[in-house]
Design goal:
Elements (H helix, E strand, L loop, with lengths): L61 H22 L4 H16 L5 H5 L2 H16 L6 H34 L1 H13 L3
Length: 188
């Protein structure tokens, strides 16, 4: 087998896999369209270490939205155990789903749309494992606690998950699905 050619592109040349007009190194040598009020054609860069000012509502990633659901569900399950009101975990889960679907970035709606039931289950197992500590039959208390909580919260799980899907469709979930299909087909 002949040896591979190990030399790279010449100075100032883009690698074969990057379009030459989009290749840049540290913003040097890039040309952009002139910005309004900037007729020089030069790019403007923010000073190092500064961030652009936030605009609009805060945005979460898909993981952040899932974490919101886990935390709210964990707190709701714990409060329900102390207070004795079985609807608290369901209301907390549904509220967390609404908060998450409105605050998550549109690009992360697909990962958020599949995670609410799993996020609730993780929170429930964690809460019941902590609450079952000290009982004589730990495994029995854990299994019974999981079964009873899941039975009580099942309608709320369906409601919260359905709200995430319906609101997600209006926020751009269909475009995410289309992009995923294009990526799987190799078109993108």
């Amino acid at each position: 087998m002949p040896p591979r050619k190990m030399e790279g592109p010449g100075p100032g040349k883009a690698p074969y896999f990057a379009p030459a007009n989009r290749y840049r190194k540290n913003g040097i040598g890039t040309k952009k369209k002139p910005e309004p009020g900037n007729n020089t054609g030069r790019t403007t860069h923010a000073p190092a270490g500064t961030r652009p000012a936030p605009t609009g509502a805060p945005r979460l990633t898909g993981r952040g939205g899932t974490l919101v659901i886990v935390v709210f569900s964990l707190v709701g399950t714990t409060i329900s155990h102390w207070v004795g009101v079985p609807a608290v975990p369901g209301v907390a889960f549904t509220l967390a789903c609404l908060i998450a679907v409105f605050l998550v970035r549109p690009a992360d709606l697909l990962s958020l749309s599949v995670s609410p039931p799993v996020a609730y289950f993780v929170a429930l197992v964690t809460a019941e494992a902590v609450l079952a500590v000290g009982n004589e039959g730990y495994a029995r208390a854990l299994v019974l606690g999981l079964a009873s909580r899941l039975a009580e919260v099942a309608p709320w799980l369906f409601l919260g998950t359905a709200l995430v899907l319906v609101i997600g469709v209006f926020r751009g979930l269909t475009e995410n699905l289309r992009d995923l299909g294009d990526q799987l087909d190799g078109r993108k």
